[in-house]
Design brief:
Elements: H1 7-10, H2 22-35, E1 41-43, H3 51-54, E2 67-70, H4 74-86, E3 91-95, E4 102-106, E5 115-118
Parallel strand pairs: 3-5
Antiparallel strand pairs: 1-2, 2-4, 3-4
Helix pairs in contact: 2-4
The structure holds zinc ion.
């Protein structure tokens, strides 16, 4: 399986730490291959001190390297959802209004699943 994602784009944006889970990276590459178009990562691994994680009651999927935000909209967002669901991704968040649109995918089984939410 080709690796479509760089360590840099999946690293914590606050400190550069890279603790992305290999099993999730594998699934992401399967999804990327199936989609056939770029999946721009807007957030990958986030350390517990990253401002977004620090605001939460407890650090979430991103802090375990099991969550990612993909900056897609419209037709590509629809296709990404279709492929991710077919691959069994159990937790999906949707942010599709305004300027910073993305689809969140995560496989963190320590959190409620299957589920889907909006922001
Ligand atoms: Zn960090």
């Amino acid at each position: 399986m080709k690796n479509y994602f760089s360590e840099a784009e999946l690293s914590c944006s606050c400190c550069g730490a890279y603790e992305f889970a290999p099993e999730f990276l594998y699934i992401l590459n399967v999804i990327r291959e199936e989609c056939g178009f770029p999946l721009p990562v807007t957030s990958g691994y986030r350390c517990p001190k990253h401002p977004v994680e620090a605001r939460k009651r407890a650090p979430g999927a991103h802090s375990r390297g099991l969550g990612v935000d993909i900056g897609v909209r419209g037709e590509r967002a629809h296709r990404l959802l279709e492929v991710a669901l077919a691959q069994g991704v159990p937790r999906i968040g949707i942010q599709q209004k305004g300027e910073s649109r993305f689809i969140h995918l995560d496989i963190d089984s320590s959190l409620p699943n299957p589920t889907i939410w909006s922001y």
